[in-house]
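Input record (one chain):
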Amino acid sequence: MEIISVLSEFVDKQKSIEELEGERWSDPPQNSTTLVRSVHALRRCPVKDLSVENLARLIGQDVGLRWLLPVALDFLRETAPGEAVTGWYDDDLLSAVLTREDSVWSAAPNQARHLNETVNMLTDLSESIQRQVDDFRVSVAEFL
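The corresponding structure, as predicted from the sequence alone:
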């Protein structure tokens, strides 16, 4: 996944979230869910090796947002024009980004504006994603 860096230029994509945070999580308990085991493992992967699905999973779990949100926002911006032409958009990453807590956006209003501009490029959003866009816009109205 080649990403044109705009927001994420400060992220060393050769490093993992674990390395970027400087915090190693202990191994998950034996009886952990697949999601928990997956998140623990993904934190150890270099950011450059994370797939779109991996980004959506980690962001959806509020893991590594300081580094992964800018990467995801750059990816969404890079792919939006092509997605708008085809009228189809893979909603998982977009949904994960749109549904972060208000405090995430208040700490990074430039990222909220970036996401809003990207969403403006998209067409034919599903009803559920459009609701998430509407909710996002209400929550960040002061920054737009």
